[in-house]
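Budget justification aside, the reviewers requested a transparent look at the raw inputs and outputs of the sequence design task funded under Objective 1. We therefore reproduce one unedited record. The lines immediately below are the structure tokens for a 165-residue chain.
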């Protein structure tokens, strides 16, 4: 099996069907390409691997660069804010007990997934959502920091509303 460094092509070995070679695949936007390079056709395992690498490099040069959905709102998002979602859990030990919260999640600089949860029971749905949005924005699970930012924003809103009157 090919390692992580061989992105775009993978080894296919099926003794049942007597198929041995490399499968090259790429997707850029709506364009998808794939090609199977047989060991038998290309003169062996190493030569078919070399050809797979060349095909993939040619496709990379020909097609536009890959796009990322990082930081973009997708159709799977129900909250309307990237990295914030609603969670509703039940506890089997207590009938009719429901835990609702908004969860902010992100990837830290070291590549680990991080998240923090704000209870709707404790803060109310509206404030829990706002706190999760702030936590996602600053990418911090430090509740005191998030609450301090929320308080500052609410004070600013109150001052602005007072001035308008």
């Amino acid at each position: 099996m090919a390692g992580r460094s061989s992105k775009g092509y993978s080894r296919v070995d099926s003794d049942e069907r007597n198929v041995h070679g490399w499968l090259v695949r790429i997707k850029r936007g709506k364009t998808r390409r794939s090609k199977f390079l047989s060991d038998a056709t290309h003169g062996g395992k190493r030569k078919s691997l070399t050809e797979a690498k060349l095909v993939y490099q040619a496709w990379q040069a020909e097609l536009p660069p890959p796009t990322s959905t990082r930081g973009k709102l997708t159709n799977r998002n129900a909250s309307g804010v990237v990295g914030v979602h609603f969670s509703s859990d039940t506890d089997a030990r207590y009938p009719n007990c429901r835990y609702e919260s908004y969860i902010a999640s992100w990837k830290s600089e070291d590549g680990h997934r991080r998240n923090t949860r704000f209870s709707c029971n404790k803060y109310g749905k509206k404030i829990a959502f706002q706190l999760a949005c702030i936590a996602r924005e600053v990418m911090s699970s430090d509740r005191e920091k998030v609450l301090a930012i929320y308080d500052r924003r609410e004070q600013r809103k109150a001052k602005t509303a007072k001035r308008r009157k």
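Residues 84-164 form one domain. The mean pLDDT is 89. Computational costs for records of this kind are itemized in the attached budget.
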